[in-house]
């Protein structure tokens, strides 16, 4: 699951900035957000500290999702 997050995280920048595909980038970063949230939930049962340490990453990605959506909507 973490490997999928790395690939998704790596793919977002070229989609958003390189190709200018704001809608595709939004879908992609939302999927990334879902994977991060699922990882936090899985970690919560194994190690609460590990899950808590992922919360800033989830929070930052939430901000990025909202920002990506806003840019996409404002540029349509």
From TrEMBL:
Cellular compartment(s): Membrane
Protein name: TspO/MBR family protein
Membrane topology: Multi-pass membrane protein
Keyword Transmembrane helix included in the entry's annotation: yes
Keyword Membrane attributed: yes
Pfam families listed in its UniProt record: TspO_MBR
Organism for this UniProt entry: Mycobacteroides abscessus MAB_091912_2446
GO CC terms of this entry: membrane
Transmembrane segments annotated in the record for this chain: 20-44, 51-72
Keywords associated with the record: Membrane, Transmembrane, Transmembrane helix
Superkingdom of this protein's organism: Bacteria
Gene Ontology BP, a term: tetrapyrrole metabolic process
Family classification: Belongs to the TspO/BZRP family.
């Amino acid at each position: 699951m973490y490997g999928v997050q790395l690939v998704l995280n790596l793919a977002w920048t070229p989609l958003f900035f390189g190709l200018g595909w704001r809608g595709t980038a939004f879908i992609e970063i939302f999927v990334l957000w879902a994977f991060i949230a699922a990882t936090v939930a899985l970690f919560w049962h194994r190690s609460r500290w590990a899950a808590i340490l992922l919360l800033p990453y989830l929070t930052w990605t939430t901000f990025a999702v909202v920002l990506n959506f806003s840019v996409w909507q404002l540029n349509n």
